[in-house]
Amino acid sequence: MKSQTRARERERERERERERERMSGEGKVVCVTGASGFIASWLVNLLLQRGYTVKASVRNINDQRKTEHLLALDGAKERLHLFQADLLEEGSFDSIVDGCEGVFHTASPVQFSVCDPQDHFVQIIYVSSAQETDALGLTLACNGLTDLLRSLTLAELIDPALKGTINVLRSCAKVPSVKRVVLTSSLAAVTFNRKMLIPGVLVDETWFSDPLFCEESKLWYQLSKTLAEEAAWKFAKEYGIDMVTINPGWVIGPLLQPTVNSTVEVVLNLINGAKSFPNATYRWVDVRDVANAHIQAFEIPSASGRYCVVHKAAHFSEVVRILHELYPALDLPDKQDDSTRLQLGYHVVNEKAKSLGIDFTPLEVSLKDTVESLKEKNFLAV
């Protein structure tokens, strides 16, 4: 009888703890930039669940495809306020961060357009979530150009990414209410240097990508993320901003937004008739864990520095095997594309991320929830 009483008490205490967690943000106001993105949408969702009032910025407040899913979230009617802001316009975030205790800067420039000397139009699309590989870090679409990068200056590619981050931090520096900034960086700002990435190597938060190496290797996305984080740390130190960065790996999981982002598209391609899978090992993590890491990094007073948020490294052959076990009827690729560059199985240490209380979602669950979300939103080929 006593043991049953103690068990009931423990369960009541756990329920009280869950309730405290659910309402830990009650009465607090925070800002989320780039709120319509994959990670940011989940971040807004979890913040609302915890009772926060969220001031969320989007590039076009009249674009329903960017806002409708946010306005439909539980708690959005009472505590979500949408604002239009331009990352590249200094002062654009002043009124948004005013009155906020925390600022989550997830946004990054998504598209730049430049012209070469022959007036060929070039469109450069930057994905807004963390990327590991140069192949998917930057998508180039050009008309009549055989060597695009020769026609672009470094400033045209990199300056906008830097300027957007600094503009948000500059707005934060003007507002006494802001207690902490949580910056969404990337594993791209961690692992791209001259160190040997071979099995057995342990990568952690002390690693930094080398801008010169990225430039020499034409890894423009990695260069932009590296320089943006570097500039953010310098600015934060100079202006006394309490800043933490989240550096996620390859982010998958269920979609809240109505579009497929680039990291989830990798899974979509596998299940939508791909003939082969890449000879690559990615560092996978669930979007819900990444969003939670942002919140914990804000809420835990002792949180500081960088956090590599990665669940596990897995080769695509393992991913395909898991998908086949989950969905045997799917037409999955059964051969490896050996023309792709081998991505080796180095290990990213996630102990610091676990110190935030992150209980990582198993890869099997992340993949299943990703596929179910894609099915629900009718992205699977019939």
TrEMBL record:
Q: Enumerate the residue ranges of region (Disordered).
A: 1-25
Keyword Oxidoreductase applies: yes
Q: Which GO terms describe its molecular function?
A: dihydroflavanol 4-reductase activity; flavanone 4-reductase activity
> Which EC class is this protein assigned?
oxidoreductase
Q: What is this protein called?
A: Dihydroflavonol 4-reductase
Lineage: superkingdom: Eukaryota
Q: Which reaction does it catalyse?
A: (2S)-flavan-4-ol + NADP(+) = (2S)-flavanone + NADPH + H(+); a (2R,3S,4S)-leucoanthocyanidin + NADP(+) = a (2R,3R)-dihydroflavonol + NADPH + H(+)
What function does this protein fulfil?
A: Bifunctional enzyme involved in flavonoid metabolism.
